Inverse folding.
């Protein structure tokens, strides 16, 4: 590798990292509690549902919806959802109106068997962590900005892998020259920690960047597919009295055999139309449980209007989510995710430190590379 | 330093990182595709980078302890000397 190309790659690595480091540190730190949001919410959030007795029939969705509206006067239901990992709870998302902003929504848990209120989902602390992690309290521009930072991280990773060669080619893998000057030891640690976590960080960075595009992608899907889905069906008479939720869920299940309901989107929400309910069903196998099949049903009659597979870009979005969250391999995977996150924090911090000391003195290993290249 | 005598082939430099990267991707996919054995595969595969870090950092800190003993008698300047760009 020529000395001039080492310098060029160093420039790319330094500046792509420096620009994104502050935000990456924020993402790593806020991401740490988010890995365990399920466990933390359980500690501080709503209590558990009374232990379900086997064979007990779940409460009708209509009863849960009625309870939720009674518990939250003046609010409208946006979504009712079932989490595959919490079969004894039902999520009800309420807001000022069906089309109100998602960040203003309240999520309340209900007992899937008894139908009674369990309490709010999540804690204020986790909400702050989530907003800082997802959009910096700046809505869609904040998300897209963090997505751009994620792409800069990928640039930093690629240039870092290229630089790994001139900086380590004269040493056995994993050598940490702990007896040498502090910056030499930190350079070796930066190289070791960075290179063994490179695949993980690339996957988490890329899937995170994909997640920032969720809003625009759903917008594209609405414009393209949703309008085509309802084009074939004549809107029924204005729904004076909406169809029963249980009828709607039953008809949606008939339209998507072998699948179970994931959530109901109420008319007027981004996942439905003003005249239709959207029922999103999922599979039961590990991978198909991540994928959703939308069924649109007339809000007044409850008749199935249409059902189509999700387009590839929403499938990609749904598959990328577990790969970012690390929530698909039990508690051991979450612990590993957290440790890899901590390693990334050390890589970011040591990179910052190396840049700081190099401002005064060149990194010694670069000298080695230049001599070899000559 | 003996480290300087290692061959500079790409396999010596990128061999272990490539294996770790492949193990990571295998682990990430295994848990996604299979809920039982896939989980165990992912735990083992994703622990590999952590184990390597632990191993090499422990080795370095042990080496450092020996190194300080071996360095006794030398001047501090010769111990911390670092080649500099001229």
């Amino acid at each position: 590798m020529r000395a001039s190309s080492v310098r060029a790659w160093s420039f790319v690595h330094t500046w792509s990292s420096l620009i994104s480091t502050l935000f990456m540190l924020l993402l790593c730190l806020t991401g740490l509690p988010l890995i365990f949001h399920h466990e933390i919410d359980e500690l501080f959030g709503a209590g558990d549902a009374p232990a379900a007795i086997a064979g007990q029939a779940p409460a009708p969705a209509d009863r849960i919806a009625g309870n939720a509206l009674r518990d939250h006067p003046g609010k409208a239901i946006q979504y009712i959802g079932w989490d595959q990992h919490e079969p004894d709870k039902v999520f009800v998302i309420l807001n000022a109106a069906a089309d109100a902003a998602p960040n203003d929504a309240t999520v309340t848990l209900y007992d899937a068997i008894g139908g009674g209120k369990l309490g709010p989902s999540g804690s204020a602390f986790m909400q702050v962590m989530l907003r800082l992690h997802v959009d910096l309290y700046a809505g869609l521009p904040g998300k897209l900005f963090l997505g751009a930072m994620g792409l800069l991280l990928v640039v930093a990773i690629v240039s870092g892998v290229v630089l790994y060669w001139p900086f380590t080619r004269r040493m056995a893998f994993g050598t940490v020259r702990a007896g040498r000057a502090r910056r030499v030891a930190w350079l070796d640690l930066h190289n070791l920690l960075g290179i063994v976590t490179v695949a993980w960080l690339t996957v988490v960075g890329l899937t995170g960047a994909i997640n920032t595009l969720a809003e625009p992608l759903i917008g594209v899907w609405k414009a393209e597919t949703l309008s085509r889905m309802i084009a074939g069906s004549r809107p029924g008479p204005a729904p004076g009295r909406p169809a029963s939720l249980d009828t709607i869920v039953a008809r949606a299940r008939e339209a998507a055999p072998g699948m179970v309901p994931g959530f109901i989107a109420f008319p007027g929400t981004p996942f439905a139309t003003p005249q239709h309910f959207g029922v999103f069903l999922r599979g039961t196998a590990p991978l198909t449980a991540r994928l959703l099949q939308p069924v649109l049903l007339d809000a007044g009659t409850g008749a199935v209007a249409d059902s189509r597979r999700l387009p590839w870009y929403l499938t990609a979005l749904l598959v990328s989510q577990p790969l970012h969250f690390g929530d698909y391999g039990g508690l051991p995977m979450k612990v590993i995710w957290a440790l890899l996150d901590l390693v990334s924090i050390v890589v970011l911090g040591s990179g910052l430190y190396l840049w700081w000391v190099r401002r005064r003195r060149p990194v010694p290993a670069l000298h080695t590379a230049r001599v070899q290249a000559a | 330093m003996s480290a300087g005598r290692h061959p500079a082939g790409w396999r010596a430099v990128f061999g272990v990182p490539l294996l770790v990267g492949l193990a990571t991707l295998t682990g990430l996919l295994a848990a996604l595709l299979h809920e039982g054995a896939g989980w165990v595969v992912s735990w083992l595969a994703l622990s590999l980078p952590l184990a390597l870090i632990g191993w090499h950092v422990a080795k370095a800190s042990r080496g450092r302890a020996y190194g300080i003993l071996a360095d006794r008698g030398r001047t501090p300047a010769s111990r911390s000397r670092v080649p500099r760009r001229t």
In short: The two ends of chain A are 10 Å apart (CA to CA).
